[in-house]
Write a structure and sequence with these properties.
CATH superfamily of the largest domain: Type I PLP-dependent aspartate aminotransferase-like (Major domain)
Oligomer: single chain
Strand order of the largest sheet: 2-10-9-8-7-3-4
Number of domains: 2
Shape: globular
Largest sheet: 7 strands, mixed
Helix content: 40-55%
CATH topology of the largest domain: Aspartate Aminotransferase, domain 2
Structural class: alpha/beta
Number of strands: 15
Length: 403
């Protein structure tokens, strides 16, 4: 059967995730992988999760095992609203919050609700490749805005907005990961956030804020969310997830947005999966109610801080001259830039096959017009301290050979 003539435009145009494909290779025990954005499994709160699951099945079996509401289980939404008030000083109403199956579903929903094929959006360059994948599936025309050591620049965003305005095109939204951006680890400063929000108002567009792990801060000053700075004017919608700060296997996240937008998301979600797993929502609600989350986050911060410092130390020890890297204030990633003659994509096969070390080539994080080939993203949260040293040593050897 020839399926080509039957596939939709979306099916024909979508590409596999570079990270998900790479993880199939790096599952080998002899590979030291800095490729995935994986939390440290040694830190998973197994005991507390087991107790919460047991309590849910003992106390609320019918609710846990039945279909749930599309909007999310009421008990979890109540805990999320309380969490946002305590940690972000946000006053979010129940109708302004939707529970989703982690932030990747949220990105898919944002794309489907706001984008028609050919619509223009702006992202940082580089930016999260999972978002680029979701936007590409919708046929969006993605424009990258220049970035520096503090993330996307105001000048870069305004340049793109002016270009689109001159061409008579509307920018549907600006997508940003403001805190410890995946992939570079940069954080947008407070003053710059205010200027970017002013640009969104000036050019009448939205900001889609992706906040997967802003609590995982090692140093520096906590920055307000765009949602907080917007002060309820409806210019910002924000996506959160439990994948990096709790456990990724629950596949739980949530969106805060104006109620008119949430209503559209709800209708779309009804067509996608009816509801996010009720039993996992109830267990997460019990976990939050028990005060476990922020205690767990403090443990995560302590360990990841040490791992970041160790990777930075190993990079300084082993990397050849001409290689540079970022120093993120938090998160799970840092960004390595090699001399311009090195193609990180071409070097990856050699790194995996000869040195048994893996990374993600930076080219996958750039919008199509902006691709650079001499960058790579390294994850420091998953590997052990011993693996970090040995992996950086192997990676440095590969770069030296390429030079």
């Amino acid at each position: 059967m020839n399926y080509t003539k039957l596939f939709s435009q979306t099916a024909v145009s979508i590409k596999a995730s570079a990270i998900r494909e790479l993880l199939k290779v790096t599952a080998r025990p002899d590979i030291i992988s800095f490729a995935g954005g994986l939390p440290d499994p040694q830190l998973f709160p197994v005991k507390e999760v087991a107790q919460c699951m047991s309590d849910v099945l003992a106390n609320s079996p019918r609710e846990a095992l039945q279909y749930g509401t599309t909007e999310g289980q009421k008990c979890l939404k109540g805990e999320l609203i309380r969490l946002l008030k305590e940690t972000e000083d946000l006053d979010v109403k129940e109708e302004e919050l939707l529970v989703v199956s982690a932030s990747q579903q949220a990105l898919d929903m944002v794309s489907r609700v706001f984008l028609n094929r050919g619509d223009a959006i702006i992202t940082a360059s580089p930016t999260y490749l999972g978002a680029l994948q979701a936007f590409a599936a919708s046929g969006a025309d993605v424009y990258g805005a220049d970035s520096d050591e503090y993330g996307v620049t105001v000048q870069g965003i305004e340049k793109r907005l002016k270009e689109l305005q001159t061409a008579g095109r509307l920018c549907k939204f600006i997508y940003l990961v403001p805190d410890f951006i995946n992939p570079t680890g940069a954080t947008i400063p407070h003053a710059r956030r205010k200027e970017i929000l002013q640009l969104a108002e000036k050019y009448d567009t939205l900001i889609v804020e992706d906040s997967p792990y802003r609590q995982v801060r090692f140093e520096g000053e906590h920055q307000p969310t765009f949602y907080k700075l917007d002060q309820g004017r409806g210019r910002v919608l924000t996506m959160f997830t439990f994948s990096k700060v709790f456990v990724p296997g629950f596949r739980l996240g949530y969106i805060t947005a104006p109620k008119e937008v949430i209503q559209k998301f709800v209708v779309l979600k009804q067509a996608m999966d009816l509801c996010t797993s009720p039993i996992l929502q109830l267990a997460a609600a019990a976990y939050l109610k028990g005060g476990h989350l922020m205690r767990h986050v403090r443990e995560v911060v302590e360990i990841y801080h040490k791992k970041r410092d160790w990777m930075l130390e190993m990079l300084a020890k082993y990397m050849p001259e001409g290689v540079k890297w970022t120093r993120p204030e938090g998160g799970l990633f840092l960004w390595v830039t090699m001399p311009g003659q090195i193609d990180a994509s071409a070097m990856l096969q050699k790194a995996v096959e000869e040195q048994h070390v893996a990374y993600v080539a930076g080219v996958d994080f750039y919008p199509p017009r902006d691709a650079r080939r001499n960058d790579m993203r390294l994850n420091f949260s998953f590997s052990t301290f011993e693996q970090i040293e040995e992996g950086v040593k192997r990676l440095a050897a590969t770069i030296k050979q390429s030079l």
